[in-house]
Amino acid sequence: MKNYECVTYFITKNGRKQIWYKDKEGWKQKSGRGIIRKVTAEQFLSHLLPALTSDYRNKVWVVVEKKKKPIRGTYLNSS
User: What's the whole-model pTM score?
Assistant: First the structure.
């Protein structure tokens, strides 16, 4: 699976969700409030790697899924 074929979700224990994905314009982050920001690959990794450590194990869940349907020229699993 390639970067642009998947969506990464960060879900907190409080139920907040951030969506990270790559499209033809580069990496994007969609906040729980629906705000979409352009980010670099380094910014994505700086959020992903701490979430995978044992310090955050019970606070943040990381879920990666294959993209399913197109939304506004990109592919995302949720609107």
Answer: 0.76
Domain ranges of the chain: 3-76
Check if the beta carbon of residue 37 is closer than 8 Å to that of residue 29: yes
**7 exposed, middle or buried (CB, 10 Å; 0-12, 13-18, 19+)?**
buried
Q: What pLDDT is recorded for position 69?
A: 64
Rounded to whole angstroms, the Cα distance separating 64 from 78 reads 13
pLDDT digits (tens, 9 = 90+) for 60-73: 899 999 987 655 55
Using DSSP, state whether 20 is helix, strand or coil: strand
* Strand segments (E) across 1-79: 6-12, 17-23, 26-30, 36-39, 60-66, 69-71, 74-76
